[in-house]
Specification:
Blueprint: H1 2-14, H2 17-23, H3 27-38, E1 45-46, H4 47-63, H5 74-84, E2 87-90, E3 99-102, H6 104-118, H7 125-141, H8 146-168, H9 177-218, H10 225-231, H11 241-253, H12 256-270, H13 280-287, H14 289-316, H15 319-339, E4 387-388, H16 394-400, H17 405-415, E5 421-422, H18 424-430, H19 437-450, E6 452-464, E7 470-481
Parallel strand pairs: 4-7
Antiparallel strand pairs: 1-3, 2-3, 5-7, 6-7
């Protein structure tokens, strides 16, 4: 039974991207390209830059006399790798184009192959020392007996006192260069694994966010557990096991004292003579270890915060109700289809025609260059018709502005002393509009109360604005009569 379970488990793994990459006929080429493009240098690059770099490598490999045939274009290989699960495509917030990076399983496959190639010995003295140290610390920290714990602390104190006495006499026992170099490389491999764990943490958050949304949509009740917690302001992603674990690690990483101690220790190690035997990549990794952790941890932290905000917004905007309704309709359609599967043949006509989308394909030779002369814009200037001002809007305009109505009434009173009647255009020719359009609106307001409005008749008025530009407008024809002159006082 165990053999069957193992075989079934391995068959499932055989369909995973990691195994597919290792079992590919062109695995050496694929692993080499993926490692060089997205693992050794930039781990996340825009799609245009990835296509350009990949095409350069393809041209170089096809030009060499190697037993390698790469007939596809860079875009075709990127699409294939994306479909196989070896690449991950994302569109960061505010980015102008999509960015690509290796999937977690592709990284695991490449690191496995790289480890086999280097053939590093795993049974090193430094690894054994680290294991023994961790086991000793675990035994001490889990000891609940006060007497045993006190005895262990006294033994540790005696050891420290003996070492202090030895150093005081000028005798210092330090690791030799070979063992120090061996331990340094073990630490680098362990630290590199730790940095790569951020990719797994980010994937866990994505799956967690997806599961929460599925639970919200699939919940048939009015309010589910996730909904209740979200409506109550609880950050379900931050309060999850993965969220709490990462937050604890993030707080530890951002602790000023711990970070300072780590930086000092790294600088001290890099100044030792044995580190000169490290290659350039190893030294750069140690030198940038803290910043690398902060950068990758910051990306995961931003992803966690973004998922939490988007999930809360998804609930507060009631968008989940539409998704839930759509999910219910899909389930109903599937249920009805299952009920009719024995009665209706799959090839039976439904009477519904779904037009397929298509694109017109044309040869580049059929294209025509754009001729700007065929699309010249007419630059002639025409005077626009005067705008109309209705009496309905005059009251609002007067109420919202500071028009000198008293001066306008004085102008009308003086002009009507020698004339039987006046229109607004005649008044403006005698008395310029000092407030521009405001004066015109003021005359209209006065005319509606003290003048005679000629229904369905308009006149054109003209005035000069404060900027010296002459303006015109069509206004209702209003006559100010001499017999009503006293109403203006």
């Amino acid at each position: 039974m165990k053999y069957r379970q193992r075989i079934a488990g391995y068959q499932r793994l055989r369909e995973q991207p990691l195994w597919k990459l290792l079992a590919s006929d062109r695995a050496p080429v694929l692993v080499g390209l993926l490692q060089g493009l997205l693992l050794e240098a930039d781990r996340r690059i825009p799609g245009s830059i990835l296509a350009e770099r990949l095409q350069q490598q393809l041209d170089a490999l096809n030009g060499e006399e190697l037993d390698v045939e790469l007939p596809r274009t860079a875009q075709a290989y990127i699409a294939y790798w994306l479909a196989q699960g070896w690449l991950v495509r994302r569109l960061p917030e505010g980015a102008s184009e999509e960015e690509y990076e290796l999937s977690r399983q592709a990284v695991q496959a490449i690191r496995f192959i790289a480890g086999v190639e280097h053939n590093a010995s795993l049974a090193t003295e430094s690894r054994l020392a680290m294991v023994m140290q961790q086991i000793s610390q675990l035994a001490q920290q889990t000891e609940a007996d006060p007497e045993a714990r006190l005895a262990a602390l006294k033994a540790e104190r005696d050891r420290i006192d003996a070492e202090i006495a030895q150093v005081s006499t000028g005798k210092v026992s330090a690791l030799d260069g070979k063992r120090a170099l061996e331990r340094t490389r073990d630490v680098i491999r362990l630290a590199d694994d730790l940095a790569e764990d951020f990719r797994r943490v980010r994937d866990d958050f994505e799956q967690l966010n997806r599961r929460f949304r599925e639970r919200i949509i699939d919940d048939e009740g009015a309010r589910g557990d996730v909904l209740d917690r979200l409506f109550n302001g609880v950050d379900v992603i931050g309060e999850s096991d993965a969220g709490r674990s990462f937050q604890a690690f993030w707080d530890l990483l951002n602790d000023p004292q711990r970070s300072a101690e780590l930086d000092v220790a790294l600088d001290t190690v890099l100044n030792r003579g044995f580190t000169r035997k490290l290659d350039r990549n190893e030294r750069n990794f140690l030198r940038n270890f803290t910043s690398t952790l902060l950068e990758r941890g910051g990306q995961v932290h931003e992803v966690m915060q973004h998922f939490a905000r988007s999930l809360r917004g998804f609930v507060q905007s009631r968008g989940y109700l539409e998704q839930r309704r759509l999910n219910q309709l899909l389930k109903q359609a599937q249920g009805q289809a299952l009920q009719l599967r024995d009665e209706v043949r799959p090839t039976a006509p439904t009477g519904f025609v779904l037009p397929l989308s298509s694109a017109r394909i044309r040869s580049i030779g059929q294209w025509r260059l754009h001729d700007p002369r065929t699309h010249q814009v007419d630059t002639s200037i025409y005077y626009a018709e005067a705008a109309e001002i209705t009496l309905d809007s005059v009251g609002d305009l007067v109420a919202q502005s500071e028009i000198d109505v008293r001066t306008l009434k004085d102008n009308l009173f003086m002009l009507l002393g020698s004339r039987p009647r006046l229109s607004i255009s005649q008044v403006l020719r005698e008395r310029p509009a000092r407030q521009g359009l405001g004066s015109v609106i003021g005359y209209l307001s006065i005319g509606t109360r003290h003048g005679r409005v000629m229904t369905d008749q308009l006149e054109t008025v003209e005035w000069t604005g404060g900027d010296g530009v002459v303006r015109r407008a069509r206004v209702p024809l209003i006559w100010f009569l001499k017999e009503r002159r006293d109403e203006l006082v």
